[in-house]
UniProtKB/TrEMBL annotation:
It comes from Streptomyces liangshanensis. Residues 1-20 are annotated as: Disordered. Residues 34-178 form the Oxidoreductase molybdopterin-binding domain. It comes from the Bacteria. Pfam families: Oxidored_molyb. This is Sulfite oxidase-like oxidoreductase.
Length: 198
């Protein structure tokens, strides 16, 4: 398996820069909307569903056979903590979706346990998102979304859905779990888009 080391270099430098209203943590707080699902890798499956209803499936073996990347990124939680230079390993969404005719402008990310979150499709492409299965050189623990989670570090971390198992493409946006409860539809930490109206 090839491993590509590519850190995320977004709009802003990562050297000890905090988005507005954030503070730095050195641990990794565990926050979840519900109980932690236990998903065995032999049972894990990821499904992309297009607007037309076509479905593309990957098993754990399929996922981990793809070229991996090791992004080092800053992450920012809507509860106001930020953690610098976190180290992950996983598959870029660009690699996973290569060769698939992607329709729709929006994506609903789905997880084991029923969690959902919505994003513009463009925020999952062009080196901006990964399906991550290792953190800090270890298999991703269940409390942090293992066996695999979405990693979208340029948005607040609720958009990086834990226990990810699929993406449904959509022509128009619709709210996911937290967005339906008043969180911002986009969630840019540099613009403090925490809640609707921010």
């Amino acid at each position: 398996m090839a491993v590509i080391s590519r850190g995320f270099h977004g709009r802003r430098p990562t050297e000890e820069k905090l988005p507005p209203g954030q503070y730095v943590v050195h641990d990794f707080p565990v926050l979840s909307a519900g109980p932690t699902p236990v998903v065995r890798t032999e049972d894990w499956e990821f499904t992309l569903t297009t607007v037309a209803g076509d479905m593309h499936h990957w098993s754990w073996r399929d996922l981990t056979a793809l070229p991996a990347e090791r992004p080092t990124v800053d992450i920012h939680c809507v509860t106001k903590w930020s953690k610098f230079r976190t180290e992950w390993e996983g598959v870029s969404l660009d690699t996973l979706l290569d060769g698939i005719d992607l329709d729709g402008d929006y994506a609903m990310v789905q997880s084991y346990g029923g969690y959902t979150t919505d994003l513009p499709l463009e925020d999952l492409l062009d080196g901006r998102a990964w399906i991550a299965y290792r953190y800090d050189h270890e298999d991703l623990p269940a409390e942090h979304g293992g066996p695999a989670r979405l990693l979208v570090p340029h948005l607040y971390f609720w958009k990086s859905a834990k226990w990810v198992n699929g993406i449904r493409l959509m022509d128009s946006d619709e709210p996911g779990f937290w967005e339906g409860l008043g969180y911002h539809e986009y969630g840019d930490p540099w613009r403090e888009q925490r809640y609707q109206g921010d």
